[in-house]
């Protein structure tokens, strides 16, 4: 996932990169590296070999029309985004297509660096793609990315804890309040991401979206978008965070907890409930195989959809993943589109899903017997991805996220009467250059 944090006021993408281009040596660089039919794909690191496998297979399937060459992005989220921004800002033609964290699609598109797919290409590329990921791949009515991976958070719970509390997390009206009360009753912990980083933003956004609200509206107005977080939905999200953070059900490390801190707690003696991505299930299996965790833990684990905020309103689970964007400066856009169509096809997505463990945006893959054998929660994953609530789709996402992380942290300090209003004011001030982050 490509992300960024803002230590100072984020300028427009073009302005922010001008000062560094000369030192990077990227201005005027590039060219048709590797031959006229070589497509350079910039993608996050993958130590499983799955990415290379699908690139090789699609190249072979093209019967010589193109060869996909992989260029590995840095390991850190900040480094990934930085390299892509620098190359695109330089107009580097050697980058043909790249994976992009969905919240940053608008940033690159608004700068004029991404190719806009035609309606004919859109129809071909989005065959069987799930609904919610498509929303994050569009900007101002144009498709500027193709959903590739599409992660989602599930509610993981210990069956013994739910039984002791007399609750059913799979019930359609299972809410955050029900879960918190059940954890307190059984003296167990709810594992969630409360560290000041992007994972905390995912939690805040997931609650607001599930309550029926939004952090911003009229997104396409850019810095003049409507800041909507100071609303009854935003206040309800703040109430839930405060209720959990100040209760015995909170992990003592909540304000510094990321996905792995939560996963380790959930696998321990006080584990009760956990909000986390599906990788946690495979990691638990790996820990058991390595002798780190007792097999009885896996037998006690079950899963359900992200909890509701309101009993009568379906939740909108968090969504992650990556889109594939084509560089506006590529000289082989037609071949890039053809290659992407292969990469998002069900057979290629199956290879990636089984090898890398990342859920995918192509719906048919979840019906595959091999996928269902490895991931018995495949139907729930597909449903959650399809119904998910994306993070704010805006060119200024980095500013919005950083402002919320600042004003809503620590979780125990969140006040429904003041925190949403404070974050709304900070977002508006930062977007209009009245304050710095």
Structure in words:
This protein is α/β, with parallel strands linked by helices and 437 residues long. It folds into two domains: 206 residues, D-Maltodextrin-Binding Protein, domain 2 (3-Layer(aba) Sandwich), CATH 3.40.190; 201 residues, 3-Layer(aba) Sandwich (D-Maltodextrin-Binding Protein, domain 2), CATH 3.40.190. It is globular and about 65 Å long. It starts with 12 loop residues before the first helix and ends in a 6-residue tail after the last helix. The N terminus is likely disordered.
Global Rg: 22 Å
Mean pLDDT: 91
Briefly note the CATH topology name of the largest domain.
D-Maltodextrin-Binding Protein, domain 2
Number of domains: 2
CATH architecture of the largest domain: 3-Layer(aba) Sandwich
Oligomeric state of the chains present here: single chain
- CATH homologous superfamily (4th level) name of the largest domain: Periplasmic binding protein-like II
Q: Helicity, in percent?
A: 40-55%
Strand content: 5-15%
- Give the structural class: alpha/beta
Number of distinct beta strands = 13
Task: Tell me the span between the first and last alpha carbons.
Answer: 22 Å
Report low-confidence residues grouped into runs of 5 or more: 1-34
What is the global morphology?
globular
Counting DSSP H or I runs of 4 or more residues, the number of helices is 19
Largest sheet report: 5 strands, mixed
Biggest β-sheet: strands ordered side by side in the sheet: 2-1-3-13-6
The CATH class name of the largest domain reads Alpha Beta
């Amino acid at each position: 996932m490509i992300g960024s944090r803002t230590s100072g006021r984020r300028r427009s993408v073009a302005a922010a990169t001008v000062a560094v281009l000369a030192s990077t040596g990227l201005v005027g660089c590039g060219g048709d590296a590797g031959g006229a039919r070589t497509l350079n794909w910039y993608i996050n690191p993958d130590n499983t070999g799955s990415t290379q496998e699908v690139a090789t297979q699609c190249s072979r399937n093209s019967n010589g029309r193109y060869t996909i060459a992989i260029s590995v992005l840095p390991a850190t989220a900040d480094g990934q985004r930085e390299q892509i921004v620098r190359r695109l800002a330089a107009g580097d033609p050697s980058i043909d297509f790249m994976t992009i964290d969905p919240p940053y699609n608008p940033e690159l598109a608004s700068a004029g660096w991404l190719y806009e797919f035609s309606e004919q290409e859109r129809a071909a590329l989005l065959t069987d793609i799930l609904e919610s990921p498509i929303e994050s791949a569009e900007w101002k009515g144009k498709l500027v990315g193709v959903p590739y991976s599409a992660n989602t958070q599930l509610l993981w719970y210990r069956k013994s804890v739910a039984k002791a509390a007399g609750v059913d997390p799979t019930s359609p009206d299972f809410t955050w309040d029900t879960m918190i009360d059940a954890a307190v009753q059984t003296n167990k912990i709810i594992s969630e991401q409360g560290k000041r980083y992007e994972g905390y933003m995912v939690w805040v956004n997931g609650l607001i979206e599930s309550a029926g609200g939004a952090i911003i509206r009229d997104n396409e107005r850019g810095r003049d978008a409507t800041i909507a977080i100071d609303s009854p939905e935003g206040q309800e999200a703040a109430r839930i965070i405060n209720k959990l953070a100040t209760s015995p059900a909170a992990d003592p490390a909540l304000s510094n907890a990321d996905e792995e801190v939560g996963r380790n707690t959930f696998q321990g003696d006080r584990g009760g409930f956990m909000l986390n991505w599906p990788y946690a299930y495979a990691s638990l299996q790996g820990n058991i195989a390595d002798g780190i965790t007792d097999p009885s833990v896996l037998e006690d684990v079950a899963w359900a959809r992200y909890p509701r905020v309101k009993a009568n309103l379906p939740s909108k689970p968090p969504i992650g993943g990556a889109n594939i964007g084509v560089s506006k400066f590529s000289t082989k856009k037609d071949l890039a589109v053809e290659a992407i169509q292969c990469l998002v096809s069900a057979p290629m997505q199956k290879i990636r899903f089984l090898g890398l463990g990342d859920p995918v945006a192509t719906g048919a893959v979840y019906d595959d017997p091999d996928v269902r054998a490895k991931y018995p929660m495949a139907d729930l994953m597909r449903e959650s991805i399809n119904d998910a609530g994306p993070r704010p789709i805006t060119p200024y996402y980095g500013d919005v996220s950083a402002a919320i992380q600042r004003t809503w942290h620590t979780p125990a300090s969140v006040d429904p009467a003041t925190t949403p209003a404070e974050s709304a004011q900070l977002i508006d001030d930062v977007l209009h250059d009245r304050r710095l982050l």
